[in-house]
Amino acid sequence: MAWIYLLIAAVFEVVFALGTNATNGFTELWPSVLTIVAASGGIFFLSLALKTLDVGVGYTVWTGIGSVGTVVFGTVLFDEHMNGWKALAFLLIIGGVLGLKLADKFTTTTAAQA
């Protein structure tokens, strides 16, 4: 369940980052409200995930998914520039997130067997 909470937290993180872009320095009411709600939701679900996951794994995965999601949606919604170096960096981030997920699974399995 912790990984589901973490994915929900990451969705909130993406909404938070994209919403911040739309607040115009928190001078626009509804984008500001959305941004604050998204930030709160992200931290809430992250805290639920961290009841089970190591903080280093959980936080890194949360920010990694949030970063990649923000770049993908920023490129689509805000017409931000994407190049080969950015794409490579995002693939490395995704690889790191998957590696942490596998490492956490391996650690949990190994600890249960001990």
UniProtKB/TrEMBL annotation:
Species for this entry: Phytomonospora endophytica
Annotated compartments: Cell membrane
Gene3D superfamilies registered for this protein in UniProt: 1.10.3730.20
Membrane topology, as annotated: Multi-pass membrane protein
Bilayer-crossing regions: 33-50, 57-78, 84-103
GO molecular function terms noted in the UniProt entry: transmembrane transporter activity
Pfam families: Multi_Drug_Res
Similarity comment text for this entry: Belongs to the drug/metabolite transporter (DMT) superfamily. Small multidrug resistance (SMR) (TC 2.A.7.1) family.
UniProt keyword terms in alphabetical order: Cell membrane, Membrane, Transmembrane, Transmembrane helix, Transport
GO cellular component, one term: plasma membrane
Lineage: Bacteria, Bacillati, Actinomycetota, Actinomycetes, Micromonosporales
InterPro entries per the UniProt record, alphabetical: EmrE-like, Small_drug/metabolite_transptr, Small_multidrug_res
Protein name: Quaternary ammonium compound-resistance protein SugE
